[in-house]
Amino acid sequence: MSRSNRTSNPVTAKRGLSPNVLVTLVIVVVAVLVVGGVLLFSGGDDNADGGTEQPRVAAEVLRKPDSHTLTEAPDGKVTLVEFLDYQCPACASYYKNITSKIEQDYAGRITFVTRNFPLEMHPLALPAAQAAEAASLQGKYREMYHALYDNFQQWAISADGQNVNSDEAAAKTVFQGYATQLGLDVAKYQADLTSPQVQARIDQGRADGQQAGVTSTPTLFVNGLKFAPQGDTFGAVDQELRELIDKELG
Question: Is 237's pLDDT higher than 80?
């Protein structure tokens, strides 16, 4: 009889769940709901509007005291930082459709900083970065930055128009032509191209970009918030970036 009391009905033994198992399942379900809710409402790190839910990258990582600026805001309220690759087609498209207009439209209202992040997949990205940095040593960074992007098709794209150019010698000749047009001391410019000072600037940009989580170009930050656009047209992306800037301007 004691055995009968200890033995469950075979059917209910197969189909039923012990109290311990039921408690465990309830805990698991609640945990899933809580975690799912957090993920749903936080939206992750790549919010379309760069909302405050995501962490801000420290200003000292994104900008060094000697970092180049395209525009300066006296109040320093908003800083836009772009990690770029001069031979990156996406960067050139951003420049043409978005960032060059931001530079003009927000001049004096925001500080626009550009950082080097040349990618290995682009054979002329490093020589172009060297050209920009060498020009900066003669106070012409902004002018060389514009020359490189305004003439992107001339040096960055191959003759077939389908691939990035890899002719470094030809590109350097083109860059020297820009240096001449900008009124640089060409001998000094040439010497500076491979100088330790220029290489250190480029290496610092790469290192800071990696620390900030940059894996592709262009990558932009507004007051430390990574810009993660959701739009599928340049117009939509431009609007998203302006909305984020305007939000930070208050």
Answer: yes
Question: Which token pair is 104?
Answer: 């003009």
**Alpha helices (H) along the chain:** 2-6, 10-15, 19-42, 59-62, 89-94, 100-105, 125-136, 141-150, 152-155, 168-181, 186-193, 196-211, 234-249
Q: Whole-prediction pTM value?
A: 0.79
142-156 residues labelled b (16+ CB within 10 A) or e (exposed): bbbbbbbbeebeebb
CA distance 165 to 157: 5
Asked if omega into 127 is within 30° of 0 (cis), the reply is: no
Give the end-to-end CA distance of the chain in Å, rounded to a whole number.
Answer: 80
Q: What is the pLDDT of residues 163-197, one digit of tens each?
A: 999 999 999 999 999 999 999 999 999 999 999 99
As a whole number, mean pLDDT of residues 222-238 equals: 97
C-alpha to C-alpha distance for 116 and 206, rounded to whole angstroms: 6
Q: Compute the distance between CA of residue 134 and CA of residue 77 in angstroms, rounded to an integer.
A: 30
User: pLDDT tens, 141-153?
Assistant: 999 999 999 999 9
**Whole-angstrom distance, CA of residue 56 vs CA of residue 62:** 10
State the Cα–Cα distance between residues 58 and 46, nearest whole angstrom: 17
Q: How far apart are CA 156 and CA 167, in angstroms?
A: 9
Find, among 112, 137, 111, 146, the residue nearest to 199 by Cα. 137
